[in-house]
């Protein structure tokens, strides 16, 4: 099986689970369920769930039977996009080629959809905790990555730097917290479930998250709305702190190459892990949407 | 010890723990920690933590050593107030006599402070899960009460009914979800930790939550900003669905009396529990701020 086929296998497996979970949702009032579903089912490459499944296999664990935690991760990612798009935050009217949540349901409902998805993620993660200590540790890793010591800190720093510049030091922190932590989470969680590679997994995941954010910054500068499905060129207009604002476009490409190399080096520190797919995933993130 | 002294004992114990936790917070950027602290430390009667401690003692458990879960509950309550006050939601400029979070820190930072507190609550609850299955169940109860099957559903219904009327049926649902679930949570969590009274605790907690919301509705109609520390008379102006809008002021007072009686009856179903303080707490909620 080549990389694309394997990606599609993980992706389809997650998508089927997601569809079933969404079909079974019956929160009242209906608009709450609709708004949660709308954002969960708006497509996307499902990088985090795929990364979770692939990491489990790389570390010698079965990924079938671990769909709930993949779903919890995706719920947190989805909540973060909804709140990030709000008028008071990035004020983005489009997400994945569709109107963003606050455009489709109004601002108040979008705030609540995000709150609901964040709570739901922990509901699901806590539901796995009875399976044993490894699951508790995995849920803790997710919580740490999402919260005030992780992604929310990144969003806060992003706000603080917007329009005010900032240098390489702030950029490194932004990469790590805003994107890195929640990309690293599935790899770290898989390592915790497997009972090995926890430190290496975190280092690799953070580097991959940084690579992801750099390519995001590059795509915002050069991409078009059609291929990206969201507004582009906004970073520069809004004076965001990005890889492109600090290094220029060419410099950002070099940084991306550097982090892609770093990712692969870090993969090789996991002696005995089956890293073939993850290595190709690094290339996929490096070249996505180009 | 009389009721007030006992309340003050629980209150002071929680407040000391809270102050220490807040002093130890060092999330970056600083504004994130400041905004979380600002709302956590803005006073309030700490009804939920007091109810948690009192329920533990009523059910034969020590409350010392269980401060973390009390703090997690208060974090969720605090996040809900921050998001509830946002311009897109209830648009309240004052909370507990101080500018609300979005007035003090701006809207984007207020959204993030709420997101951070919600994540933090689960971080703390997950930190207790290693203590055993009872703690996992208690954390699950908190999560269920906070999320799309609980408080967030109540907020969503509140939005839906505002300006559009609604009758007794919607009001009962609103009482239960918007307020009841998170007032019931500490009682249910205490019962789960004690390993008894779980069903009775939920019934009592939901009735107490309803009583709490009815008195809130009455206070909004008759109170003044000075005693309440927040904007008043807003419910009527904004055509909120409340006990007063459905039953009138006199009818709402009767409903409050009815629920206060119901609370006490439900307390007596818990054979062997030491309900003396909780009975007086019912009276305290019935008469608060009058």
What would you note in describing this structure?
The structure is a homodimer of 290-residue chains. With 290 residues, chain A is mainly α. Helix content of chain A is 73%, strand content 1%. Chain A has helices at residues 3-24, 30-40, 47-58, 67-85, 101-105, 107-128, 133-146, 151-161, 168-194, 198-222, 225-228, 234-237, 243-267, 276-287, and strands at 94-95, 98-99. Chain A has a two-stranded antiparallel sheet. In chain A, a hairpin with a 2-residue loop joins strand 1 (94-95) and strand 2. In chain A, helix 3 packs antiparallel against helix 4 and helix 8 packs antiparallel against helix 9. The longest helix of chain A has 27 residues, at 168-194. The first copy, chain A, is globular. The first copy, chain A, starts with a helix and ends with a helix. The mean pLDDT of chain A is 95. The interface between A and B is large, with 49 and 49 residues.
């Amino acid at each position: 099986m080549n990389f694309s086929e394997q990606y599609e296998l993980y992706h389809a497996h997650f998508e089927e689970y997601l569809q079933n979970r969404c079909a079974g949702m019956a929160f009242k009032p209906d608009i709450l369920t609709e708004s949660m579903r709308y954002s969960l089912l708006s497509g996307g490459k499902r990088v985090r769930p795929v990364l979770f499944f692939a990491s489990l296999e790389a570390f010698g664990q079965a990924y079938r039977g671990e769909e709930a935690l993949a779903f919890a991760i995706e719920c947190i990612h989805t909540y973060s996009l909804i709140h990030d798009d709000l008028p008071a935050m990035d004020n983005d009217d489009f997400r994945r080629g569709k109107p963003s949540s606050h455009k489709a349901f109004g601002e108040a409902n979008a705030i609540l959809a995000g709150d609901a998805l964040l709570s739901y993620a922990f509901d699901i993660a806590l539901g796995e905790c009875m399976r044993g200590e490894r699951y508790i540790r995995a849920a803790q890793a997710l919580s740490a990555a999402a919260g005030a010591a992780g992604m929310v800190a990144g969003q806060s720093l992003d706000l603080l730097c917007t329009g005010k510049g900032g240098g390489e030091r702030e950029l490194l922190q932004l990469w790590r917290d805003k994107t890195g932590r929640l990309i690293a989470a599935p790899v770290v969680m898989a390592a915790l479930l497997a009972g090995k590679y926890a430190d290496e997994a975190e280092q690799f995941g953070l580097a991959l998250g940084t690579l992801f954010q750099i390519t995001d910054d590059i795509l915002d500068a050069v991409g078009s709305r059609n291929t990206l499905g969201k507004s582009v060129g906004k970073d520069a207009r809004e004076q965001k702190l990005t890889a492109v604002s600090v290094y220029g476009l060419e410099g950002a490409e070099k940084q991306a190459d550097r982090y892609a190399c770093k990712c692969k080096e870090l993969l090789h520190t996991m002696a005995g892990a089956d890293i073939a797919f993850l290595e190709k995933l690094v290339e996929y993130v490096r070249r996505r949407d180009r």
